[in-house]
Specification:
By secondary structure, the chain is an alpha+beta fold. It has 2 helices and 5 strands, in the order βααββββ.
């Protein structure tokens, strides 16, 4: 298996994570690390950002995680996390 991509968080995503209670944070961080091992996973839907970049959206438990993979830098850029519970 290839090395996992590094996770890079936008300010919104980082603020969201900081505000989570510890048990929910641990679970979500684990899931994000799993995603970083398979950055080309098929997402639930894709929207384009203001720059025309395709942003994947994946439902992970109670959250929708918006991300894009920077394959050149081996980084998974988490741009937004929303609680949909």
């Amino acid at each position: 298996m290839a090395n996992p991509y590094s996770l890079v968080y936008s300010e919104q995503a980082a603020d969201f994570l900081i505000a989570l209670e510890r048990s929910r944070l641990s679970s979500l961080l684990y899931d994000l690390r799993v995603l970083a091992k398979s950055p080309s996973i098929r997402s639930d839907y894709v929207l384009n950002d203001s720059q025309g970049r395709s942003i994947d959206h994946l439902l992970i438990g109670d959250y929708v995680v918006a991300f894009w993979a920077d394959h050149a830098l081996s980084e998974l850029r988490i741009v937004e996390i929303s609680d949909v519970s």
